[in-house]
Specification:
With 472 residues, this protein is an alpha/beta fold. It is built from 21 helices and 16 strands.
Length: 472
């Protein structure tokens, strides 16, 4: 490498936002970027004069990711807490020469600064919201929004702010991350965002990341050529990303995306190109990405289950949909809309008893809009001409639904605790037993979710975890 190339590389590393460490195979610190001193609390000279073993023992590196790579010979990513009390995410990679470990290169990113930026963002959002409430322009925008919402029920101030934000970002290609509890309506708002965008005439491809087995995920997402693997379709297959060309790709339950697919998705977002399995050629795909999750992705990053760089790419426009218990003004519209659907579907005009409204407005609805709609359908099917609120909701203690084909089984029995079996193994075995019996008796993951009082994506994840499938 020439002198000028070395100077350019040194300048890039020294001015980078990340903090770099280079240590040799014995743990001796060979290089540390200047910005590391402020994060780790001691000067660069002291860091270079030390070893990662001593720095870990002194609490400067807690723990040392370089030592982990030296022990395993594999790349690693961990969360650290420095001696100055700052939280960082560190990544490290081994360097081999002739099959022998000669060095470890690591870089870390300070999450403390990110949290401060998020707090500033939240404050700016609040100020912006307050300004909108005082502005006459908001009333005009509200009037226009009312005619554009279609089937969405948006009456509460919280949801109107969400809708207004989505309406403003819709004409752009910025990635939107939908956050909120299961059942709040993330998919419905993602579809509305697509309808508002310039891509409205293109496809809207809805992908539930938790519902696709990990072994098939890459082939489903990126497609494959004929003969790419055993059992591949003779003519190959177009992946879900390509199907979204010219439109919107919506990835629900993004937190369940396998790490290997996360890497390829990040590259597809960065380059705008993908490669099918078994294909050496890449192809350009123009799509708008919208993702949704009910998980804390920041926590998933710290646990090593989600890539930090992908998290930054996805978290461009975060939009939080509040739970139904925080926007009860939307309940009447949601009930009326669902009642119309049911009357139209089943060809009979039924009414909701006036006395039922107080009970509906008082419920907590932990399953949110999905739970409310499911409750109303059960009540519709079990009532005469007038629907009353005495049908228990899933959030009620007596509400565990009993399906006709599961009612005859009696209670699910579990074998006693094994002699050398711990609590964790016993719980896992019990969970497997319950799910296996329900897979034999019920016909869908939605039915199992109703029976257990949990969300359908949770059932999909559990079945995949235990290697179970529905029998009929």
């Amino acid at each position: 490498m020439s002198t000028i190339d070395s100077l350019i590389l040194r300048t890039i590393v020294d001015t980078a936002h990340d903090h770099f460490f280079v240590v040799d195979a014995d743990g001796k610190v060979r290089y540390v970027s200047p910005s590391a001193a402020a994060v780790y609390g001691i000067s660069c000279e002291e860091l270079r004069a030390s070893t990662v073993q001593r720095l870990e023992a002194d609490g400067v590196l807690n723990p040392s990711i370089s030592l982990e790579v030296m022990r395993t010979g594999q790349p690693a990513q961990i969360a650290q807490r420095t001696g100055t009390g700052r939280r960082v995410i560190a990544q490290a990679h081994p360097v081999f020469e002739a099959g022998k470990l000669v060095a470890v290169v690591s870089r870390s990113m300070d999450l403390t600064d990110l949290q401060l930026l998020q707090q500033e963002y939240t404050l700016l959002q609040q100020r912006f919201s307050d300004h909108l409430k005082r502005s006459q322009a908001l009333e005009q925008e509200d009037a226009a929004l009312e005619s554009e919402l279609g089937e969405l029920e948006v009456k509460s101030p919280l949801m109107r702010e969400v809708a207004l934000l989505l309406r403003r970002v819709a004409p752009t290609d910025a990635t939107v991350m939908m956050l909120g509890e299961s059942g709040v309506g993330k998919t419905a708002f993602a579809r509305q965002l697509h309808r508002w965008s310039s891509r409205r005439d293109g496809p809207f491809v809805d992908v539930n990341c938790a519902a696709i087995p990990e072994s098939l995920f890459e082939a489903e997402m990126f497609g494959y050529r004929a003969g790419a693997f055993s059992g591949a379709a003779p003519g190959g297959r177009i992946g879900l990303i390509e199907q979204a060309a010219g439109g919107t790709l919506f990835l629900d339950e993004i937190g369940e995306l396998p790490l290997g697919v996360q890497t390829k998705l990040l590259k597809a977002i960065q380059d705008g190109r993908i490669s099918r399995l078994g294909d050496n050629q890449s192809r350009r795909v123009d799509f708008r990405l919208v993702v949704a999750t009910n998980q804390d992705l920041g926590q998933r990053v710290e646990e090593g289950a989600f890539r930090l760089d992908l998290y930054y790419r996805l978290n461009v426009i975060p939009v939080t949909l509040p739970p139904l218990r925080e926007r009860r003004e939307d309940i009447p519209g949601l009930v009326e809309r669902q009642l119309k659907r049911l009357n139209r579907r089943y060809g009979q005009e039924k009414l909701l008893a006036r006395s039922s409204w107080q009970s509906l407005m008082r419920q907590e609805w932990p399953g949110n809009v999905r739970e409310l709609e499911n409750w109303l359908e059960r009540a519709w099917l079990s009532s005469d001409d007038v629907i009353h609120a005495d049908t228990p909701s899933p959030s009620h203690p007596a509400a565990a639904p009993r399906h006709a084909d599961a009612a005859d089984q009696g209670p699910i029995s579990c074998p006693p605790l094994g002699e050398e079996e711990g609590l964790k193994d016993a719980l896992s075995r019990t969970e497997h037993t319950i799910l296996a019996e329900l897979c034999e008796s019920l016909s869908s993951t939605y039915a199992i979710a109703d029976r257990l009082g949990v969300s359908q994506p949770s059932v999909v994840r559990k079945l995949k975890q235990h290697g179970l499938r529905i029998r009929r």
